[in-house]
Write a structure and sequence with these properties.
The protein has about 230 residues and is mostly helical. The protein has one domain (about 5-225). It is about 65% helix and about 0% strand.
């Protein structure tokens, strides 16, 4: 099975379960918005965002093929699960800002849990194809979880930061949400590619991934009792 197909097969459940985690935790905290919208489902069609899941990846791929002759990066997102922070309650007490941070944290935590589950599954899988899939699944879930912890709204990390920072800082950070996706695309993907054409090395995301991902993968393998090389 090709690496591209394995990537897609691993990515789809990682994204869907990430979004489901947001919606289900919000449901446990009293918000029925996602349930009413029919988003507490494993049906991938319910989670496709016309812009983030189709248009943006397609435009990025076509644009790079036309200008660079290859695809350097892709970026996209699923349709965000609808949540009304004003409905969130813990023990009957409303605290929209703090509880929204809990809901936001649920997505990355789901991805980290899926990576650990895949690490445990390695012990009972004996075919090369399934082992390759689990390797992709671990890496993609760790990448998705870590990427979403970037402390900039509308990333999960940004919403967590809004929930825990002092109110003045939280308000200022929340105000950046309307520009968040654009800033992420420009700073982490577009700018490094453009600068690279002029021989300027600037790729903070790739540098961070190169440092953090092997460490995270090693932790998952240790936790799940798999052999780890020196």
């Amino acid at each position: 099975m090709s690496g591209g197909l394995l990537f897609i097969l691993a990515l789809i459940p990682a994204i869907i379960l990430h979004e489901l985690a947001h919606g289900y935790v919000a449901h446990l905290l009293g918000d029925e918005t996602a349930k009413i919208a029919g988003r507490l489902t494993l049906n991938p069609l319910k989670h496709i965002d016309p812009v983030g899941s189709i248009a943006v990846p397609l435009i990025l791929a076509v644009g790079q093929m036309a200008t660079l002759g290859r695809v350097e990066f892709l970026y996209g997102w699923a349709k965000p699960v609808p949540i009304n922070p004003m409905n969130l309650r813990l023990n009957g007490i409303a605290n929209p800002r703090r509880l929204m941070a809990v809901v936001a944290l649920a997505g990355p935590m789901m991805n980290f849990a899926l990576a650990i589950f895949a690490g445990l599954a390695v012990h009972v899988v004996h075919t090369n194809g399934m082992l390759d899939f689990l390797a992709y699944f671990i890496e993609i879930n760790l990448l998705l979880g870590l990427f979403n912890l970037i402390p900039l709204p509308p990333m999960d990390g940004g919403r967590i930061a809004v929930g825990v920072l002092p109110l003045p800082l939280a308000v200022a950070l929340a105000g950046a949400e309307r520009y968040g996706i654009l800033l992420v695309l420009l700073l982490l993907f577009v700018l490094p590619t453009v600068l690279g054409q002029f021989g300027i090395a600037f790729d903070p995301f790739q540098e961070a991934v190169a440092r953090i991902l092997p460490w995270a993968e090693r932790i998952v393998l240790i936790i799940t009792g798999n052999q780890v090389g020196n």
